[in-house]
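User: Continuing from earlier, I have the next pair ready.

Assistant: Great, send them over.

User: Here they are, in order.

Assistant: Folding the first of the pair now:
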Amino acid sequence: MTIPDGPSALSTAPPSTTPNTAAVALYNPFTGAVITPGVDDAVPQAALLGLEPPRYCTECGRRMVVQISPDGWWAKCSRHGVSDSRQGGHR
């Protein structure tokens, strides 16, 4: 009995020819709905002016803890951390 040489000799599946392109879903920061390419989501006018903070995480769609102060806001996702109005240039 012969033993194959190396880990590649043990693999019976053909190598993948497609690159690993996992699609990452993005979420609307004001509604929490999944953003669908080609479909326009309604954005509140206050959000367009930078007056309304995001309420949902854009990476996972979870509801965030939001603190509003006179000079800006910050929002915290339990999985992805804190973002604030300084990041968007609104402070």
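And the other member of the pair:
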Amino acid sequence: MPTWSIAEQFQIRHTFNTQEFIVDIVKRSCSYNFWELVEIPCRHVVAALSYKKQNPDDFVDVCYIREKYALCYGFSVSPINGQKMWLEVQTDKLLLPVYKNGSGRQGKGRIRECGEDGVRRRRLGVAYICTNCDKFGHNALSCKRFTQYPNALKRKPNASQADNNVVADNNIVASHASSCVVDTSHIGLSKIQAKQKKGRNLK
């Protein structure tokens, strides 16, 4: 909706989103910046020109006139051969850029695109429970609470229980190792007896 301000300036207001723009017909400018960029009147300029009952075609730049198009493309174009008959230009072979490993541990996580989940994709049908606040939907790494709830502490394995499990595993390994011990005393005696038999045969 155009509103005349002063001289050739108008204030254009949208009726559906209440946006407002300034149009200056003398300076051929609009705060929407479409007229200055393309040199064709935008809808705001057309609204202002319709208020003054002027033709918007008269305010289009001369570069869009048919005579200017004919003058621009009026020269003759020389024919050329097909692409298979073009001369090959001797240039250096393109090489890959030099890649240098940065300091520190290299990340294994792929840089995901916009709209994807984080580095660790959530599995469907699995409810994540935080071991810090005992709430669903996140884990302890992304938890924003500073205090740990007693119920969440019960679900964590205790250090003493973990040590007892390690000791029990060590005892099982030791028992298996002791059952695998072989008595090698008779092996030494058999070798001595074989040497004595060889000596008797030589005599």
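Worth noting for the second one:
The CA atoms of residues 65 and 71 lie 10 Å apart. Strands lie at 2-6, 9-13, 20-24, 29-30.
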